[in-house]
Design brief:
164 residues; alpha+beta; 5 helices; globular
Length: 164
Amino acid sequence: MGPDPGCHIVPAEPADLGAIVAMVRELAEFERLAHEVRIQEVDLREHLFGPRPFAEAALVKVQGEAVGFALWFHNYSTFAGRPGLYLEDLYVRPEYRGRGCGEAVLRYLARLALERGCGRFEWAVLDWNTKAIAFYRKLGAVAMDDWTVQRVAGPALVALARDG
């Protein structure tokens, strides 16, 4: 089944920040990570629409109502010698899942990646989210099983940044 023609993907605007933050919180609940959410509208305004944007976002709308969002940024592959597009978050409210909205977002971002000369489009998925993994496989995504994500955050980031 292709994307539902009722799902429209539109670039986010500053007026959408409240809806995006609300859906970030919903996503965090779903991912069992609500305790990690710190984002505020002011953060998102600065990072999406400030003088040096770090990310981009789009809304999924059905009949004018925001029912999902995607947030992404560019990375770079030295091996490929080309930029990539990294999808940080994709969320569709539960009552709109199965209607092709998620597929519509991924197709929108794949087209954007090609338009921008990207050599790849990638994202991470929690290993317990088997429905999402099956959905991504159906669209041609492959797991990068030889790679493990590493992260330094909070006090460890501060300690690493210190001299000597």
